[in-house]
Design a protein that fits this description.
162 residues, mainly beta, 10-stranded antiparallel barrel, 1 helix
Length: 162
């Protein structure tokens, strides 16, 4: 049940919301570097899905920025997410995997969810189904397009503060 509720990583790319978008068909992702999203680095906390969220982003190093995400509900870990944004062919790619509280993976061993860069627009960086927004030096928003159990799709906003 928890897995289904928190499946914001299984995006419905057919539906677009106010803050998330997709790369138009037959379009090449734009050029970008990690400098365009380096403001994400740091330790961030927030609230979502009835619990406390924690997201940690490392500074750019070796062509990537690594992150970890944790959701804690009622004092217990619900799940983890690990991933990175990396530079590939002069653009950025957002990639991630999910794990239960015991670190058993949700995806198959070699499966990774990968999201292409759509655009960089000031303090917003758009990937397919995800948008990262710098509100100020101590606050960010991450918007994610999620699929619901009933087949509908919705955009969820995650607000994080340092």
């Amino acid at each position: 049940m928890n897995r289904i509720i928190f499946v914001f990583f299984f995006i419905s790319l057919a539906t677009q919301a106010q803050n998330t978008t997709t790369l138009p068909k037959d379009t090449t992702p734009p050029h970008a570097t990690l400098n365009d999203i380096s403001w994400m680095q740091g330790y961030w906390t927030g609230e979502a899905f009835g619990g406390i969220t924690e997201e940690i982003w490392t500074p750019p190093l070796g062509g990537s920025m690594m992150f970890s995400f944790k959701l804690v509900v009622d004092g217990e870990v619900s799940f983890y997410e690990l991933g990175h944004i990396r530079e590939v062919n002069k653009t950025l790619v957002y990639e991630l995997k999910h794990f239960n509280d015991d670190l058993k993976g949700w995806e198959e061993k070699d499966e990774v969810h990968s999201f292409k860069l759509v655009k960089v627009d000031g303090d917003r960086v758009y990937f397919e189904g995800f948008t990262f927004e710098k509100v100020n030096d101590d606050e960010i928003n991450i918007y994610a397009q999620i699929d619901n159990e009933d087949g509908t799709s919705e955009e969820v906003a995650f607000n994080f503060k340092k």
